[in-house]
Design goal:
It comes from Rhodobium orientis. The chain is an all-alpha fold and 448 residues long. It contains 16 helices and no strands. It has three domains: 41 residues, no CATH class; 289 residues, MetI-like fold, CATH 1.10.3720; 65 residues, no CATH class. The protein is globular and about 95 Å long.
Length: 448
């Protein structure tokens, strides 16, 4: 007998109606441990460098904390409080703090320095914050109003002008005649060069004349007597001098450097030759030599009876020195711009200055933000060299305080240099962080 069994197959299909919840990542890949594995101990070389860094921190940080905090002296009236101390002498810093800021600037007139700092801050901060409006008005304020206001507040104003080279009696008449002659000569020279280059010679000449007109207005305002007490620059010192030199050098070196970079790439042989000579000369001379020459040698070449303020000579020397380095930084950015950008601008019918101001320079300056800020930081630190010509900047005024027998102690110099290092670090680190912020905002780097 044959039995036939029907094959009964049962098919069960499972369809998930919701996604499986994400499993928690391994504890070794998240949190502090995960960050350390990814950034500090991701490989044997990184592990070695991390351990070396930890060892250096162990050697430096604990002694620094002991000197500045644990073993420091916090109260005292004179050197006896710090004579036997093994840490920082903070009463000495407290006693000299305002001297570190103002130098020997007269006490009753220090409100003028504070007002200058305030005017500088309210003009600079809106320019640094991208979301703030009225950028053009802020730039005009910083380039036109603030320099004149700062000059009048810090010096007292009421300047008198005598002139330089015309064979006529000294006085304001001779100065203004010489001013008109210089304005005419500079405008005419630039007009001829612009016409030879095929640019808008008339528009450029009018712009130069407008600049001289603004300069004449500034001279006139500076000659007005505002009733302020005159404070000579030898009484300036401390952080005031450091900021005056640094800000002036930074503000002057960037436009001069841009002009020199464009001149070095110019098709006009005379412009290119002058730019190359200027850049190579100033780059080939140490800044300390420039300061010494401006202070000692320059007066020997001036006509009899004509002198320049020592601080003014230092400002000119620092600005020209920094502009040569700035020119090479900007030139690197110009060379990084592809040829197609130039060809596209010329295809649109743009003139040379239109092409540079609207197409080329915005891209070039964006690319070299790190180099520009690096030059600014180096310039800020190089202001300490003015001590060699008798200008007491922040470091110089700190060193001069060591001669005070009332605060002479074994740790006085260490404390003073620590304060100077901290102040310089705050300013330089702030410039560095702002540079990084602008790089990220403008997306100048290459994405990975």
């Amino acid at each position: 007998m044959t039995m036939t069994h029907a094959d009964e197959s049962t098919s069960e299909a499972y369809v998930r109606d919701r996604m499986v919840e994400d499993a928690a990542p391994p504890s070794s890949s998240v949190g502090a441990i995960g960050w350390m594995r990814a950034n500090l101990f991701s490989s044997i070389p990184n592990t070695i460098l991390t351990l070396l860094g930890i060892y250096i921190v162990y050697l430096v940080v604990p002694p620094l904390i002991e000197f500045t905090l644990v073993n420091a002296v916090w109260e005292g009236e004179d050197r006896t409080a710090c004579a036997q101390a093994h840490g920082a002498c903070w009463p000495y810093v407290e006693a000299y703090f305002w001297t570190f800021i103002y130098g020997r600037y007269p006490d009753p007139e220090r409100w003028r320095v504070n007002l200058t700092f305030f005017l500088f801050a309210i003009g600079l901060v809106p320019l640094l914050v991208p979301q703030m409006p009225f950028k053009r008005e802020g730039l005009i304020y910083m380039l036109a109003f603030f320099p004149v206001a700062a000059l009048i507040l810090l010096t007292g104003g009421d300047f008198t002008y005598a002139g330089f080279f015309l064979p006529m009696p000294e006085g304001e008449l001779r100065f203004w005649i010489e001013f008109l002659l210089v304005a005419a000569a500079v405008t005419g020279g630039i007009y001829l060069l612009t016409r030879e280059a095929g640019g808008n010679a008339k528009g450029t000449a009018l712009s130069i004349l407008a600049g001289f007109g603004v300069l004449a207005a500034l001279f006139f305002v500076a000659s007005i007597d505002f009733g302020l007490v005159e404070v000579e620059t030898p009484l300036w010192g401390g952080l005031l001098v450091t900021l005056v030199i640094a800000v002036t050098g930074i503000a002057a070196s960037l436009p001069i450097g841009i002009a020199l970079a464009l001149g070095r790439r110019s098709n006009l042989p005379i412009v290119r030759l002058i730019s190359v000579i200027f850049i190579e000369f100033w780059r080939g001379v140490p800044l300390i030599t420039v300061l010494f020459m401006s202070s000692v040698m320059l007066p020997l070449f001036l006509p009899e009876g004509i002198t320049f303020d020592k601080l003014l000579r230092a400002l000119i020397g620092v600005a020209l020195f920094a502009s040569a380095y700035m020119a090479e930084v900007v030139r690197g950015g110009l060379q990084a711009i592809g040829k197609g950008q130039y060809e596209g601008a010329m295809a649109l019918g743009l003139r040379y200055w239109q092409m540079m101001s609207k197409i080329i320079l915005p891209q070039a300056l964006t690319l070299v933000i790190p180099g520009i800020v690096n030059t600014f930081i180096g310039l800020f630190k190089d202001t300490t060299l003015v001590l060699i010509i008798g200008l007491f900047d922040l470091l110089g005024i700190i060193q001069s305080s060591y001669t005070d027998p009332n605060w002479a102690s074994p740790t006085q110099s260490h404390t003073g240099y620590l304060v100077a290092a901290l102040i310089f670090w705050v300013f330089c680190f702030s410039m560095s962080r702002y540079s990084i912020y602008m790089e990220r905002r403008l997306d100048t780097g290459h994405k990975r």
